Amino acid sequence: MLNDTMAEIELREDARYFAVPGAHLYTVLHQAKDAIGRVLLVGPFAAERHFSYHPWVRWARYLAARGYEVLRFDYRGIGESTGVFQEMSFEHWLEDVRLLADWYQRRSPSLPFLIHGLEVGALLAAAAFRRDLGDGLLLWSPPPTANQALRSALVRWAGLEQIWDSLDNRKSAAEYIRELEQGIPVEVQGYEWSARLWHDSSLLDLHSILGTELQDPTNFGRPVKIDKLTKEAAPLVWPHLMYQEMRDLDWLYTQTFDSLPNLLARPDARLA
After folding, report:
1. Whole-prediction pTM
2. Is residue 72 within 8 Å of 44, Cβ to Cβ?
């Protein structure tokens, strides 16, 4: 939890809409006094955003209270952003990340800039970083592919249906997958997944994005850190454990915060 000293610091948060093709992204800029760096938070996919929302916002405030300006946002068609989810694709969401990262990088060029992604957002963050955006990259629990993340979400959703829905309305994860592969959209946790979304999810692949650098991140010439979070980080990850009470994740925030100076060291500073 934020301690009493941090709670007394005025955390200035500027909520605005950022124009992208055909929609507006809901953004919140967490300002920091005498900022020493900037962080773009690239959050998880669709309903996962709701599960992780509270600890994700707390992480942004934790960083802002300690001198890092933070920008977080909702993708097109998700959360508070405009746009129709079933019309979106991973290309649209990658464009969201790229446009925001480009704007944020130009906002204060003198400050080092970290792109930080969570789960599916980690794949999008890595893809933006690969396109020469950001001074450093931090990934929390990136799945091997977006398709694996979608399959996991389907399994969780089908499991909930077994508990709450009538026999007539229950479907197995295999039935959902069969419908998607037949071109039939399905509703998962309030979001309508299109067959295109399902197909394209296999193309968003961590190994393809990072290539050989995945084995040796130093090949980028810019710092890269990949952390696989455990169930102890729920509900930030592992949302099927949401029945548990909210955990204090200060151990994770502190551990990650301590690694930021190395992730945000620019080449001239690293060579000094």
Report:
1. 0.90
2. no
For β-strands 37-42 and 113-118, DSSP reports them as parallel
Helix then strand then coil, % of the chain, to nearest 5: 45, 20, 35
Q: pLDDT class for 215, splitting at 50, 70, 90?
A: low
Q: Is the pLDDT of residue 178 over 70?
A: yes
3-state DSSP assignment of residue 37: strand
Residue 269 has pLDDT above 50, yes or no: no
What single letter denotes the amino acid at residue 62? Y
Instruction: Using DSSP, state whether 50 is helix, strand or coil.
Output: helix
The domain limits of the chain are 6-145+206-265, 147-203
Give the per-residue SS3 of 82-130. CCCHHHCCHHHHHHHHHHHHHHHHHHCCCCCEEEEEECHHHHHHHHHHH
| Cβ pair 265, 223 in contact under 8 A | yes
- Domain 6-145+206-265 in CATH 3.40.50.1820? The answer is yes
Of how many residues is the chain composed?
272
The encoded tokens of residue 34 equal: 């005498």
CA dist 182 and 228 (Å) reads 33
